[in-house]
Amino acid sequence: MRSYLPGFAFLLALLAPGGAQAVQPACRVIDGDSLVCSGERMRLKGICAAEMREPGGREAKAALETWLEQPGDLQVEHFGQDRYARSLVVLSIKGAPLTQDHIGPPAGRGLKYCR
Fold it and tell me: How confident is the model at residue 12 (pLDDT cuts 50, 70, 90)?
């Protein structure tokens, strides 16, 4: 199932001074492969990043934050949930999906579980 965030943000942008603008949902990056957007906990499908306390963890988080800052609406494609009840998702902006290459090399203690 594919959803587009922000849903109602486009309407809010129309009401804002200056007319319509691209508006990103409120996202908080947890680490290089998980985030919370508009209250929804998400795990990036197919992305394996180091945990914050592991080597490369801070760099992976910074890479995801940088990727999310690019202009365009964030598109979220859902693929069920992981064992921690987070939504498994693939993120795209302007039709270009986030890939492992954007985050850095696969890393971390969870590497054996990454799919």
Answer: very low
- Looking at this protein, which amino acid is placed at residue 73? D
Token readout for 95 is 């039709």
Pair 103, 60: CB distance under 8 Å? yes
Query: Could you tell me which residues come within 8 angstroms of residue 53 by beta carbon, excluding any fewer than 6 positions away?
Result: none
Specify the CATH number for the domain of residue 94.
2.40.50.90
- The pair of three-digit structure tokens given for residue 76, joined into one six-digit string: 């979220």
> Residue 67 has what DSSP assignment?
H
- Ranking 24-28, 49-53, 77-81, 82-86 by mean pLDDT, the lowest is 24-28
Total-model pTM: 0.74
- Quote the domain boundaries for residue 66: 2-8+26-108
Q: Could you give the CA distance from residue 84 to residue 99 in angstroms, rounded to a whole number?
A: 22
* In a domain? residue 71: yes
